[in-house]
Amino acid sequence: MGLDYSIKTYIKKDKISKCLEWFYKNTHQFDKKTFSVLINNELFEINGDGVKLNDYQSNYINKNEDIQEFEKIYFNTSLIFDIEPKIIASIPGWELNYDTNRLKDFKEDFESLYLGNGKIRIGGFDSTITKLKNGEIYEIELTAVTSDMSIMLETSISVKKWILEFSKISDSILTYLDLEHNGHKIMYYKGKEIEIAIREGFEEGKENELSSLLNDYFDFTYR
Q1: pLDDT surpasses 60 at 221
Q2: Where are the beta strands (DSSP E) in the chain?
Q3: What does DSSP assign to residue 67?
Q4: Residues contacting 167, CB < 8 A, separation 6+
């Protein structure tokens, strides 16, 4: 099985406006058709395809209809990063080995992803927006769909910059990378940039071991 690393961040309801405005400007979809969601009586546009509500097995929604009530939104989107070698390495076919046909395919793929001004879109990311704790806190999760993209999440400086900017503008309670069996890397907590790798002890049922550091996280996630 491949890697399915993800970015997870938690935002208070009263901070969701700046969060979704920044998210819209720093994501991308090919067909330019956004979908809209009503939160706190504000309508937000979100770049995303394959939109479903509440259950991943549900039917796709019509993008022409605004989402007004939801517990969880599923969609797929691309993230916009500053270009760098580890971003390029996440694109299929980058290891060219002087094969002329593969070089042509890679060139076409790269040109379809490059947005100019040093920016590139990478995706898709299987994404969710979830209401937690009676809608007072929102979880946003962005999951890489390939192993190369997962490695990029953990190692890229551009990705780290994206995550921290997103966390700061959203005033996130907590942002971390879920590295599956390799643990978790906490990157932002209660207004501060931090970097803590937790290889063990972060699973459900072991929350007391980390409650002094992540009290808010365990409160709204497990209780």
Answers
A1: no
A2: 6-12, 27-28, 35-39, 42-46, 49-53, 72-82, 114-116, 119-132, 137-144, 174-178, 184-189, 192-198
A3: B
A4: 9, 175, 187, 188, 193
